[in-house]
Amino acid sequence: MITLPPVGSIGLVKVRGIVGEAIGAAEWLADKIDRKTFTDYEHAFVLTSVGDPADPLAQARVAEAEPGGVRVSYLNEYHGRDVLWIPCPPQYGTAMVHYALSYVGVGYSDLDYVAIAAHVLGLDPFQFGRDIVDHTGHVVCSMMAVAAAQRSGWPLVAPSEFAGYFTPDDLAKYAPAGAVPQLIA
């Protein structure tokens, strides 16, 4: 039987196919520029509910940002894949779920990736990329997860850090030391 982390936890997965390879290559390059360790996670989501304790996967749901916008889906859509969890402290779980769900329907923007790239490359000294991300009102998966954590009060990252500059690869560094990805079976 599978045991899921508390609601509000952030899950990270690898994206399959050419899209995952492109995101992974961009994250690898960003890590080389920033001299960080590459972890190869390309997608983030927030666990918003779990099922019956006897079968937690039956109704477990996640909020995730995808090209069509933020949506709620079933965790079992990741059947056969490994999820690296960043467990949400229980005192922040309800608020984390609330804020993650508040993004449902919010659009997705490729401009966010341009802003992240400009930031990593040091090509945005006046933070125009940050302004673009702020003004479009769109989110990508990792931005949604970090912003929900910040709004919930969960001190996952410093409140002064801009959520729009986080990638799933960056978030993997916040997983507990020695964390092992969980196979969703």
Biggest sheet, in brief?
A: 6 strands, antiparallel
The number of helical segments is: 6
Shape: globular
Detail the poorly predicted runs.
none
What gyration radius follows from the Cα positions, in whole Å? 16 Å
Mean pLDDT: 84
Write down how many β-strands occur, each being a DSSP E stretch of 2 or more residues. 6
What is the straight-line distance between the termini?
9 Å
Helix content: 25-40%
Backbone structural class? alpha+beta
Strand order of the largest sheet: 4-3-2-1-5-6
* Proportion of beta-strand residues: 15-25%
H/E element sequence: EHEEEEHHHHHE
Q: Can you describe this structure?
A:
By secondary structure, this protein is α+β, with helices and mostly antiparallel strands. 36% of the residues lie in helices and 16% in strands. It contains six helices and six strands, in the order E-H-E-E-E-E-H-H-H-H-H-E. It has helices at 17-34, 90-101, 111-121, 128-136, 141-152, 168-172, and strands at 10-13, 43-49, 61-66, 69-74, 82-86, 182-183. Strand 3 and strand 4 (69-74) form a beta hairpin. Helix 3 (111-121) runs antiparallel to helix 4. The chain is globular. The termini are close together.
Structural features:
alpha+beta; six-stranded antiparallel sheet; 185 residues; 36% helix
Task: Outline the fold blueprint.
Elements: E1 10-13, H1 17-34, E2 43-49, E3 61-66, E4 69-74, E5 82-86, H2 90-101, H3 111-121, H4 128-136, H5 141-152, H6 168-172, E6 182-183
Antiparallel strand pairs: 1-2, 1-5, 2-3, 3-4, 5-6
Helix pairs in contact: 2-5, 3-4
